[in-house]
Design goal:
112 residues; globular; alpha+beta; WH-like_DNA-bd_sf (chains A, B); 3-stranded antiparallel β-sheet; homodimer; DNA-binding; Arc Repressor Mutant, subunit A
Chain lengths: 112, 112
DNA sequence: TCAGGTACTCACCAAAAGGTAAGTAAGGAG
DNA sequence: CTCCTTACTTACCTTTTGGTGAGTACCTGA
């Protein structure tokens, strides 16, 4: 019998979902409520439009974020967390806390 | 005033530590106690020697895992979690749980 | 003398991820 | 008729990450 899942544990699966340079920051930004594309671009500083869209699309296809288009000119698109996305953020909270708690150590051992 | 930290939140810092294709699985394998290099190679199925060492070295430099050499022939090296590593694993537990809980959805929306 | 077992180490290559810069669409304002 | 805003989209390039396969060091036991 071959493995039914490509993942070896839940952590493995979760890592697949939040993997990518900008996803944690996007998730964190959306934690405070729906955001427009342009707002996210500002809040997630350093991200380019291409990367932001790419990551949002991936999160959308994973049903982590919801995309709502308002048919206006100029266009308006709002991104928000789905129920699944909110539960993911809840699971992410302890990790965020860990990172905050050990920020000094983490920075001290940062490569380069 | 420039930012003092390269990280924008704890999650960002944590992601930097656990980033890499094999780190979550290595961490999970070490959760059950110290492991020799050869044991990890078997438990983390699919990993090559080069990648395993590389990731272990990174975790070691971040003070997440401890490396202990036994001066024998043939050589024996044991890897185990440090206190920091254990606390990281604790923070990772909810994420693992989330992944396990939503395995079906995650698989269903997997690209390719 | 030589194979065996363990933990690496290295040179080289392939693939994936990320970055840059320019362009598109749509309609309202001037 | 042109500019403005917003949210993308595309082509192309660079960087990072991961993979392959071979080689090394060490002592032991046959």
């Amino acid at each position: 019998m071959a493995a039914v899942t490509p993942y070896t544990c839940g952590l493995d699966a979760a890592a697949d979902v939040i993997g990518g340079k900008w996803k944690p920051r996007i998730l964190w930004a959306l934690h405070h409520g729906p955001r427009r594309f342009g707002e996210l671009r500002k809040e997630v500083s350093g991200v380019t439009e291409k990367m932001l869209i790419q990551q949002l699309r991936e999160l959308e296809s994973r049903d982590i974020v919801h995309r709502e288009v308002f048919h206006q000119v100029p266009p308006k698109v709002e991104y928000s967390l789905t129920t699944l996305g909110e539960s993911l953020n809840v699971a992410l909270a302890p990790l965020d806390q860990w990172g905050a708690d050990h920020l000094t150590e983490i920075e001290a051992t940062r490569p380069c």
